[in-house]
Amino acid sequence: METNLRHRTKQFALRIITLYSALPKRGAAQILGTQILKSGTSPGAHYREAQRAKSDADFISKIEGALQELEETAYWLELIGESKIMSEKRLLPLHKETNELIAIFVAIVKNVKARGRLRNKSKARPN
Question: How far is CA 79 from CA 28, 31, 85, in A?
C-alpha cells in the first residue's frame, strides 16, 4: 500500500499542477489556482513525512495534516467549478480522486488509533 499511495499522491499533485497551468492567467482564477496548487501538492509531502514518523502520534499528526490539505483542495475545486472558472464536469475526476484519498487517509488514521487502543488494552490486562 505504501508504494501505491506514495505514487498516487504524487500523481495527484501532478494533476493539480496541470490544472493550475490550465487556469486563466488573470484575477480570481490565479488566486484560487495558487491556493489549490499549495493544498493539492501537500498531501504527498505529508504522506512522505509520515513514513519517517517517530511514533504513532507523530504519524497520525502528519496523516491528519494531509487530510486537512485534501479537504482544502476539495473546497478550492468546488469554488473553481461553481464560479465557472472551469467546468465542473472537467473537474469531476479530480473531485473523485480527492474524495478517494480522503477516505484512504481517514481509514489509515482510524486503523492506527485502533491499533494503539488494542496495544494499550493488552498492557492493562492483569497476568
Answer: 10, 11, 8
